[in-house]
Amino acid sequence: GAVVSQHPSRVICKSGTSVKIECRSLDFQATTMFWYRQFPKQSLMLMATSNEGSKATYEQGVEKDKFLINHASLTLSTLTVTSAHPEDSSFYICSALRDRVGGNNQPQHFGDGTRLSIL
Amino acid sequence: GEDVEQSLFLSVREGDSSVINCTYTDSSSTYLYWYKQEPGAGLQLLTYIFSNMDMKQDQRLTVLLNKKDKHLSLRIADTQTGDSAIYFCAERTGGFKTIFGAGTRLFVKA
């Protein structure tokens, strides 16, 4: 159980294009999802926390208008990289927190990531 | 502040035990996790330990927690070439936020 599906796995596109990445929790509900960015040989950098039905919470230094997050249902969050440029090329990973009555100390379950390459 | 540190590289021979170490700073951590990342993939949860436990064993994996020293370790018994990956230590603070270490790259020599 606790499977998170992330799509697409790889995107190559031209500079100026907007790219949408989907993150789905397949067998559980997730009010809270997270979006991370990972540079080569580095750890995960939390970009934003996505909350179903409300605005995402962005980490310091992350541009809200550049990285649009929509969490419209309990099983789906999307990250749209708007007008992408080569410096946005990276590995983007989402994770979901399983909803649980009585508190939430569950581990995060991760998608397989999306490798974005902007030419 | 919140910080998680771990060594960046570990090399072992196949069949030996691997021990990956991690230190954290937040004394209010509730859960501590070990994740595995293979090349080009997301993170796979390996195991986790609640902060009031000292040890947890799951097949070849043993997690030791020294809460006084804020030290966490992951021991992999009988390490195989398939265990080669990056291992991330992570702590769950009092809220929802999870803080990750930089990852330890485990290289297993045949």
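DSSP finds no helices and eleven strands in chain A.
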